[in-house]
Amino acid sequence: MADFIQLLIAGLATGGIYALAAVGFTLLWQTSQTINFAQGEFVMLPAFFVLIGMSFFGMPFWLACVAALILSMITLGFMFKKLLVDPMLNHGTLPLVIATIGLAILMKEGVREFYGADAWPFPPLAEATNVTVLGAALSLQSLIILGITIGAVVALQLFLSGTRTGRQMQATALNPSVARILGIPVERMILYTFLINAALVMLAALLITPIYLAKFSNGELLGLYAFIAAIIGGFNQMRGAIVGGLVLGVIDNFTAVYISTQYRLVVPLVFLIIIILFRPQGLLGRVEERTV
Amino acid sequence: MMVSKKTLAVAAMALSVVFLLVAPFLFKPYGVFILSTWVVMTIAAIGLNLTLGYAGQVSLAQAAFVGIGSYITAYLTTRGWPFWSTYMLAGTSCFIVGWLLGYPALRVQHHYLAFVTLAFNTLVYLIFRNEEWLTRGIYGIMNIPRPEVLGWSMAKPIPFYYFLLAHLALISAATWALIQSPWGRAFIAVRENPIRALSLGVDTRRYTLMAFALGAGLGGISGSLYAALVQFIDPTPFALGLSLNLLLMVIVGGSGYFFGPFLGAVVAVLLPEWLRFAQGYYLMGYAALVMLLMIFCPTGLLGFADRLLTPKAKSDSGPNPVLPDSAAPQKAAG
Amino acid sequence: MKLLKSIASLSALALMAATPAVAQVKLAYIGEISGQLAVSGGNFRDGVVLAVEEINAKGGIAGQRINLTLYDTQTNPGVARAQTQKALDDNPYAVLGPVLSGNVKVTMPLFIQAEMPHFIGGEAADLVTLGDKYLFRTSFGQQIGMPKIANYIRDEIKAKSIALIWVNNDFGKTGRDNLLKELASRNIRLAADVSTEAGQVDFAADIVKLKAANADAVFVYSNEEECARIMREAKRQGLKGPFVGDTTLLSQKTIELAADAAEGVQGHVGLTSDAPLKEVEEYKARFQKRFNYVSDHNGIKGYTGVYAIKYVTEKKLGGKFDRKALAEAMRGLTITPKDEPGILIETTWDQNGEIDRISFLAEVVGGKQKITKILPKIGK
Question: Domain range holding C107?
Fold first, then answer.
């Protein structure tokens, strides 16, 4: 029983990590039909912003984080949208997919060449202590990740449904042409989602790098998992990404113990295929009616 | 204008053919090997261009078919089977698997289809890695022999290059004929407007599956040739990365253009090699160039050339180069 | 720091192009600079670069400056073959790399055909049995390392059953297969066999499996970061060891990343920059000064490979650059640090290019790797 709880909660905690990266996926998809193949690298890079701030410029940790957040918003938010997404917006998703694949290579190789291929330790937000719940030892860190992830998404939801800007963003996501007719500054709304995504990946980097360690190749696996999480939950629903991430984390753990470690990725993938074929809008997603 | 465009295309083609024929005498063995890799990748990309560019079905599983073809040839030729039998088997097996993989495409499309095929590719990769009794897993299969043609050994780099080039020529000709045939027109009809195609009596079901199967079959053939070219295979090249790379070739070259994959493979295979003078920065330079290419020619190199040469592209009678995503309605919920 | 290094090497490159033609000897490094194995390949490369810079600063090999070219295989066999062909077209004197065993295999036929001595980092057992007379290892194969570990498990730990956790890639899988063979012949039962992925982060499920196996000892065979994560999770779940491992589990990097979770880990270390030998310690310091990170065993492999070429060329061939003679002289050769300090540890190559060296039993005590015993060379 302790094992079961251990697996369940550890799975949820890891799932929280996937969810955090997946939320950004769904945001970008909803507002601009961007499938960001560099999302994993988006989480990898801010950690190095922090490390560079600390080692190169001698900043204290908190200041490095603030600087990294600003830098993320500028590069991964503003510049990403203006330089890469905007020119391709009218040409369908595929050219942009290719461009983000290129971007992923660029970020990965850049970090490897300029900072090194090694894994680097990263300051943790919380002490590495354990909490015992029903006989299962859980790391405080994982629980904090889970808590902050859910907190961040709830806050985001509240923002989206509770504020004027948030509702305008939702309208933009639902139907940009109608939104435009209604006088909503669609362009600015789309830009906001990119900035929010940049802030989210920064948050994700802060939460997970102490566990993942900062390494240039972190994005590969994380990107794939975030991708799967987003699809399982519903590609067009933010809440879906949370559920998808958590479900994925738990399935992954139970597969490893009760089915096979060599094929641990198979069950989530098969699950994904089944979801797409029989419920393509995902567990929580809504049916997509809009034509592009 | 039309005339000059056509002349230009023919001239460019003739030059390319001459170059490909004399290339082995201009380069060292390394250059010949890289060109051989280009040929093999072009064949796989031609397959994907059929599925994606002409029939509008997004597939991220082409690497899986290249892998299946490679393993069939590697496994059987190292057990004494003649190359040709394994080559045919690689093509037909992938055709069949591709046909089966096409069924999800009847339910979902676009990004959803991309995800299903992405999952398929990862599954196949895991099988390659884990089923050691069959694939030798991470140990890989060594000493894959190169074929003989009418008693002539193709083992040396230059004969093998011409052997590959002959394949490319035959496959190109066959693909060209297919595209000009009613089948090709049916593919495009399925891409442009499936509902209208259906109402006009096109069996969209069959053509969708056929587009998948043909693309996969070419992937298998390319894999078979890849195994003979590299003479050693392990699972690593057949992961998702290659599928994305093949997608890149099709899109960068110009999706839905006959010569798109040829140019796309030049970018994906030859460009990184040209950039190697930049030492550690070559992959970064490559990535940056790909991004720039997409920013300035989102319809691919040929789409860009087309736009340059045809001021008001309305009267073009050739294969209509519209990207699948931009025009077709989304059939999300199946 | 790395940026500075890159700029430095670029300007060095520019200088190299500008210097008038002195006699030069070409060496090539073909390896995993990018891709899955970039850490190992990068370490190997930096070891090679360090050795080349040192040797050139002292006048080169037999008076000829080394002209080193780097070829990136991207950890992909097709690219590895192309790059090897490219290197061979340039007609180098000898080649270093690759590290990944699969990449060694794909390039092997080309080296045999070109009769090119190549100093590899690969440790898969079968590499020396494939008929490549020009292949030389820079660290011993797993068929030599694993029996030592199996003996250690039997004699020192006195374990009757063992739970195994390993990384499912070229390195982990071949090591596991060799260890299983050795354990079976010593009647040690395999209680659990847990495969993990490279880059895996969450090991909760894997540790649950290891716990359920209830074995006398746990063997951890993975890359440094994953080893560290495994140890942390093991500590969290209260999995009792003893934990046994190889070079990676006991490396300073793992200890640093795992913090106190690595305490008490023990095992066998084939090649380590933590070895208590003066030459190795000095190497470690030089490497860290040059590249600003700590060399792993792959760095030593690359470094000693270059010095082996230098030693043989100068001392055995009388300064003549003859490839076939180099390969000939390597076979059955022993180099000691007294003859050539750059070899770091006394090393013997046999007729197949396999290596014999001392190795170490070690334990993690107080956050440091402590060598408890030095195992002699096999041939002694």
Answer: 2-140+277-349
